[in-house]
DAGKc domain-containing protein
Amino acid sequence: IISVREEEENSSRRRGDGSWKKIKEREGKDLLYVERCRRHRWRCAEVTFTCSEEALCHHWVITLLFSSAGRPKHLLVYINPYGGKQQGKRIYEQKVAPLFALAGIFTHVFVTQHANYARDHLRTEAELKKFDGVVCVGGDGMFSEIIHGLIWRTQIDIGVDPNCPDEILLPSSLRIGIIPAGSTDCICFATVGTNDPVTSALHIIVGDSQPMDVCSVHHNNMFLRYSVSLLGYGFYGDVLTDSERKRWMGPARYDLSGVKMFLSHHYYEGTVSYLPASDIVGTPRDAARCRSGYVRAERYEMDDSDTEWRTIRGKFLAINAASMSCACPRTPKGLSPAAHLADGTTDLILVRKCSRFDFLRHLLRHTNKDDQFDLTFVEVHRVRHFRFTPRHCQSDSDLELDLRENGKHQIFSQICRDHPACGCTPAYSSWNCDGEILNHTAIDVRVHCQLIKLFARGIEEPTVFEDFTNPCAI
Ligand SMILES: CCCCCCCCCCCCC/C=C/[C@@H](O)[C@H](CO)NC(=O)CCCCCCCCCCCCCCC
Ligand SMILES: Nc1ncnc2c1ncn2[C@@H]1O[C@H](COP(=O)(O)OP(=O)(O)OP(=O)(O)O)[C@@H](O)[C@H]1O
Ligand SMILES: [Ca+2]
C-alpha cells in the first residue's frame, strides 16, 4: 500500500462483490496500492472502499498505516542531468516526485553540477542523520558515486582506514535507491528485474531492502575504487575506454565501441591469482538464479586461512569479475547468470585467446539460452579475493621463467610490446570498474559481503505474482 486518503467527493459508482467496494461515498477511503505488471514492472493503482461502521473503517486505516514500518520518510536525492539520454531531471520530476509526495516522503533534492558532486557531498557535507536513505537518479556511474561517498564516510566516521586492504568495512545504515536514467542501468536491472523509474520509486516507497556485496580494489595498499557489478580487463576495459570518447552518442556508444573492439581482437598477457570461495551455496554454472528472498543468513567476513591460492598465467581476451549477474537490457541473463547479489563472492570469468569466431560464439551466448561458459577457452571460478598482474609488470624472475618456458617467441613478443608502432597487440588494457576506468592495471580485489543495502527486493519469480487478468499486465 502506498497511501490511504480520505475521500472527499460524493459520487456513486457500480457496486462490486466482496468487502472491497469500488464505490465513492462520503466516508470512502482512497487506497493507492502497488499492482504487479509484466516483466517485473510495478504500477500504482487506486481503489476506493467504504465501510458501514466508521470505527471499523478507522481501525482498518490505522492497521494499514502500521504496516509502513521500515519505510523511508526522509530521502536525500541526487539527480544527474547528463546521464543516459539526459532525461534524469524530467524522469524524476514527472514520474517519481509525485509518487513520493503521495506517499508522504520528504525529499531534499540536489541536481549535480559536475561529476563527483554527489560523492563529495556525501563524503563531507551531507547531514546523513536526517535521512533514511539516498536516491540517485542516473546510471551505474551515479550509483557508483553514491556508494563511494557513503562507504567512505561511514569508515572515516568510525575510524576504519579505507586504504588498508585488510580492514573489515562497516556497512552504512542508509539504504540506496536507484531511479534508472543511465545507459546500462545494470545494477537497477539486476536488483529489481527491470529498468523502469516508476517501479524503482515504488520499491523505495514500500521500503524494500536488498543487501549487496561490494568489492574493494587496491593497488599496492592504495585504495582505488569499489565495484558492485563488473570489473573487466581486456574486452570490456577497451570498450569503455573507446566509448568514453563517444559520450555524445548516448547509450549507442557502447554498441559501436563493442563492434570496434570485437574487430580489434586484442589479447593481453598476465597472471591471475585467486582464492576460491569455499563453503558456498551453488556454483557459477548452476541453472538456479539469484531470486528475491535469497540472502545469506547474515553478513559475515570469511576466514580464508584454510584455503589455498591458485594461479593462472596466460593470454586473455577478457578477464571479468561479476559480483552479481550484471543482467541488463543488452544481456537479460547477465555476464554471470548464476551470480548472487549478497553471497560474499564474485565470479571470475577468464576468456583465453581464441579466434574471432569463437569469441563471437561466446558473446552471442549472452543473448540466448546457451551456456557462455561451456567453451574450452572460457573458465569461471567463484572467488572471494583475486589479484591480477599484467605481464609487463611481472617481476624479473617471473619474466625469466616465461622465457625458459616459452623460448624465443617470448623475446620477439617483448620487442613488439616495446615498439607498439609495429601494430601488434598492445601490452596492456585498462580495468573497467562499474563503468569507470582504473588508473592501475595491477590490482588486488576483495569481496565485502553485504556491505550496502538497496531499496529493492531482488528479482521475483514471475509465475507466482503476475496477474494476467489485470489490463496493465497485457
Ligand atoms: C553479437 C552480440 C553480442 C552481444 C553481447 C552482449 C554482451 C553485453 C554485456 C554487457 C555487460 C554489462 C555489464 C555492466 C557493466 C556496467 O558496470 C558498466 C557501467 O554501466 N557498463 C559498461 O561498462 C558498458 C559495457 C557495455 C558493453 C557492450 C558490449 C557490446 C558488445 C557488442 C559486440 C558485437 C560484436 C559484433 C560482431 C559483428
Ligand atoms: N552534473 C554532471 N555533469 C557531468 N557529469 C556528471 C554530472 N553528474 C554526474 N556526472 C557523471 O556522469 C557519469 C555518468 O553518469 P550516469 O551513470 O548517470 O550515466 P551513464 O554513464 O549514461 O549510464 P551508465 O553508467 O548506466 O552507463 C558518472 O560518472 C557521473 O560521475
Ligand atoms: Ca556476489
Residues 407-421 have pLDDT under 50 and may be disordered. The pocket of 16C (ligand 1) is lined by residues 139-140, 184, 186, 229-230, 236, 239-240, 254-255, 258-259, 262, 326, 328, 330-331, 335, 360, 363-364, 366-367, 432, 434-435 (CB under 6 Å). The two ends are 22 Å apart (CA to CA). The first helix runs from residue 54 to 66.
